[in-house]
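Milestone 3.1: sequence recovery, worked example.
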């Protein structure tokens, strides 16, 4: 019974894993892009305040994007010389999950009927979303967008936060430039 419950919980948690979402303009020749720069207005200081959204996170986010773009063969340059501009957005929202489980079934012999006891738990947590936009600098058009959301963990070390941002950005940019299906 214990193994069955553990297996069911593992399947449930795997089903909750968030995968990145991508959208892009199919008419764009992404092979023409060689250089990038961060958009002049790329910053998270105008985002909704949250204790995890700060200048430290912004440094981690920019570093992770630069690393992934470099791995893809794109060179960083000044905004006026870039083929594409990279912009990013972050948000933090509250989510509420409730779960009701039946904890005990009973039969009443002293009177007719049966009973069920249920237990409901409610949990509130923060969900963070990172959006990375690729903009064609000359056309001033959005040509690619990647998004990933996930549950925010509290009480992380700076190293854990950096690792989380690096992994998330790598997953978002895994399909940039878009791969043929």
């Amino acid at each position: 019974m214990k193994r069955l419950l553990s297996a069911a919980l593992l399947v449930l948690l795997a089903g909750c894993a968030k995968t990145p979402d991508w959208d892009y303009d199919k008419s764009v020749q992404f092979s023409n892009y060689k250089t990038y720069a961060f958009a002049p207005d790329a910053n998270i200081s105008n985002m909704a305040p949250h204790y995890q959204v700060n200048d430290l996170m912004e440094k981690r986010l920019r570093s992770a994007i630069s690393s992934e773009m470099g791995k893809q063969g794109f060179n960083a340059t000044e905004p006026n010389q870039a083929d594409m501009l990279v912009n990013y957005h972050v948000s933090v929202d509250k989510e509420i999950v409730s779960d009701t489980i039946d904890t005990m079934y009973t039969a009443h012999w002293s009177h007719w009927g049966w009973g069920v006891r249920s237990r409901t738990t409610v949990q509130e947590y923060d969900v963070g979303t990172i959006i990375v936009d690729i903009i064609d600098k000359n056309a001033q058009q959005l040509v690619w967008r990647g998004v990933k959301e996930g549950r925010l963990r509290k009480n992380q070390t700076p190293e854990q936060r950096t690792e989380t941002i690096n992994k998330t950005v790598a997953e978002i940019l895994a399909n940039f430039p878009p791969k043929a299906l």
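The chain is about 25% helix and 40% strand. The two ends are 42 Å apart (CA to CA).
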